[in-house]
Write a structure and sequence with these properties.
The protein contains seven helices and nine strands; from the N terminus they run αββαααβαββαβββαβ. With about 200 residues, it is an alpha/beta fold. The strands form two sheets. Strands 4-3-5-6-7 form a five-stranded parallel sheet, with helices on both faces. A four-stranded mixed sheet has the order 8-2-1-9. The two termini are about 30 Å apart.
Amino acid sequence: MELVPTQDDVVTLLRRTGGLRDGHFEYAGGQHITKYLQVALTMRDYEVAKILSVGLSRKVRGNTEIRAMIPELSVVAPATGGLPVAYGVCEALRARQVYWAERENDSEPLHFRQYLEVAPGEKVLLVDDILRTGQKLTEVKRLVEERGGEVVGMAVVVYQPNPNRVELGPLPFYYLAQLNGQYYPNAASCELCKRGVPFEKVRL
């Protein structure tokens, strides 16, 4: 396998490790989809996690401006799902540090832990496992910028665009694979539901 795995390579690894499943799934918000993706299941496998992290870091390193920042670059993830990817990318890049935003419950905004301060002018690469709507990455970007940091790019293992995707702006955006499952806004519009195919409730 090449240092940057192909789309087919990534899909094969995801399927082999249970991170990608075909079927009929319902998210907590009522959306139905035909492909369920949970990269965290794949990142349990150390060797596979290393392949994906190194591959993603290579894509980021291809940007000459970001490459020049690496000694002072911070890698920041939203919540815990992106942490294995963030640590893997940081190690592969040999960037400066990793930290993350979190929330106590779904009704609260993301925040950094006490005493974790973004330095004015700090260069930040946002990293996550999946980008669907982009809402979490947008929230973390705003959090970094409100504290004086500068987000220089975004990187995810898999881009699975959701119809409700928010506009992320002109920042460099890197991913290893794009997966386009069929989305239905609710059960009433779902073709699988109309055919009587049972669904499984899943969380994002």
